[in-house]
Specification:
Helices cover 28% and strands 21% of the residues. With 501 residues, the protein is an alpha/beta fold. 55% of the residues are buried. Bound molecules: zinc ion (ZN).
């Protein structure tokens, strides 16, 4: 038998349709997506899903073709040309002939002016080129799964953790099923379904509450004999018809069993729909509590500026939480990261050890929530300047090289503000340590994060407080004008639908 030729690629973007942050080709990778040999090198030895597909193909002694590895931070709709470039790379590789395709996808990509279903559209194109070639797909837990995606691939398996620490395992599961299929051992069939529920990401921690039960129902289906079962929380900052929770189940030949398992998983979530909704409180109230915690414990206490979380497409430059914290007298705050290339340039110009007064943050307007950017005037010393590169040592995306762009630290006395040229989630100690800040030594860590801080910063924290600031990743959906989401949709509408029983 000839060595199999397999195409392995990554296309990952979670599109926040309310975000003003653009997503051109350059937003992917370091200065654009990794192509060909570079795509392979970018993922090898890491724990990203694509790496699992590569490892499995190596075990099978397959010829590996990696046309592209494209990962960008969540942001506004993907630029049409960038999307076409990524798709063409993958489709051209398939057109050259292959025995199987393995795709590491997010599952919530919206493309400017072209499609609200970037993944489904890509899969449809691949199927049109190679109708009989089996396709395995791994998805993020926040995928908004569409019928078109399911119809145009062979196997789907998604992450079962949030914060995501099992991307590799999800792809390994999807990949193994496809390899067994290639060997003729099994005949995978899929069932898919959704419920009209937009679940707050703050309520999608798989370690607790309703989300834990939702994912546990998927695990139970796997224990009960399904090849793969995935409970997807979905991404709600996406004004598209199919936003919301869904489930996908893969069975060997038995479609009815897959559908029954899928419905059971979805029912587990729907029964607890109220528990997927986050109810906020005034920012000042949260900060007063944080101040008390910080003074009593010495810290670090985490101030979670979740509305400005770049991993949900926020601008990462809103200063409201820092402004309120300083006004309320909090002291000893490390702020991580604020994205402001202009401010970085000013600090680089001034040089380490010199004092500057400058406007930080608030450079990007947010028309979707009717707000202009509001910079904050800060005065302090430039404490450090770096190239902003580090390698993740923590449990999420372990081994991945990170590029924050040039990075500078402004020390105002009460706060040390890490300012970067590019988006960066505080998902690893490297965000602070690469610029000489030891997180344990701070009384407060103001993190523009909602979930990824958990495995890294919760273990060293004396407390954490959700701070409802300003941003396009806000959990206050009354600010957003949803037009395309199918209705009725809980909790946007008072629910009186037939699913209540
Ligand atoms: Zn996610």
């Amino acid at each position: 038998m000839h060595a199999m030729r397999v195409v392995i690629a990554q296309m990952q973007h979670e599109t926040n349709t309310f975000s003003p942050v653009p997503t051109p080709w350059e937003a992917f990778g370091k200065h654009g997506a990794w192509v060909g040999r570079e795509a392979l090198e970018a993922v090898e030895g890491t724990r990203v899903p694509m790496a699992a597909f590569v490892d499995l193909a190596r075990q099978e002694r397959a010829q590996i073709v990696t046309p592209v590895a494209a990962w960008a931070y969540p942001s506004g709709p993907v630029d049409g040309d960038a999307y076409e470039r990524i798709c063409s790379l993958i489709c051209d590789a398939v057109r050259e002939g292959c025995d199987a395709v393995f795709l590491d996808l997010h599952g919530a990509m919206v493309v400017e002016g072209r499609t609200d279903d970037g993944e489904g559209t890509l899969l449809e194109r691949i199927r049109a080129i190679a109708p009989r070639v089996p396709i395995a797909v791994s998805l993020d837990l926040h995928a908004n799964v569409t019928e078109r995606m399911v119809r145009n691939c062979t196997v789907i398996a998604g992450y079962k953790t949030y914060p995501h620490v099992d991307g590799y395992e999800a792809a390994e599961l999807a990949g193994n099923i496809l390899w067994r299929h290639l060997r003729g051992e099994i005949q995978p069939v899929m069932a898919w379904g959704n419920r009209p529920l937009l679940a707050h990401t703050l309520k999608q921690n798989t370690g607790e509450g309703a989300m834990r039960e939702f994912v546990e129902a998927a695990r139970a289906a796997e224990r009960g004999g399904m090849l793969a079962a995935t409970a997807l929380g979905g991404f709600q900052l996406a004004d598209i018809a199919e936003a919301g929770i869904s489930a996908v189940v893969v069975a060997d030949r038995d479609r009815a069993a897959a559908q029954a398992a899928c419905d059971a998983i979805l029912d587990a979530a729907w029964r607890r729909k109220e528990d997927f909704i986050y109810r906020g409180r005034p920012l000042e109230e949260a900060l007063v509590e944080a101040k008390r915690l910080g003074e009593a414990s010495g810290g670090p206490v985490l101030l979670l500026d979740h509305a400005d979380n770049c991993m949900s497409g926020a601008t990462q430059d809103s200063m409201h939480v820092l402004e309120a914290a300083l006004r309320l007298g909090l002291d000893g705050i490390a702020v991580g990261p604020v994205r402001d290339a202009e401010a970085v340039a000013r600090m680089v110009e001034a040089g380490i050890g010199n004092r500057v007064t400058l406007a930080i943050g608030g450079k990007v307007d947010m028309p979707a929530i009717g707000r202009k950017g509001e910079p904050m005037m800060l005065e302090g010393m430039v404490r450090n300047i770096t190239d902003g590169e580090y390698t993740i040592t923590g449990p999420q995306f372990t081994g991945t090289r990170c590029y924050m762009g040039r990075t500078a630290v402004l020390d105002t006395g009460k706060a040390q503000v890490v300012v970067t040229e590019r988006n960066q989630e505080p998902w690893d100690r490297g965000v602070f340590e690469s610029v000489g800040i030891r997180p344990e030594k701070q009384r407060y860590l103001l993190l523009k994060s909602r979930m990824y801080f958990r495995p890294v910063f919760l273990p060293i924290a004396k407390g954490s407080v959700l701070c409802d600031g300003v941003g396009v990743a806000s959990s206050d959906w009354t600010q957003f004008d949803y037009r395309k989401v199918r209705r009725p949709m809980y909790p946007l509408d008072e629910w009186r639908g037939p699913l209540d029983r």
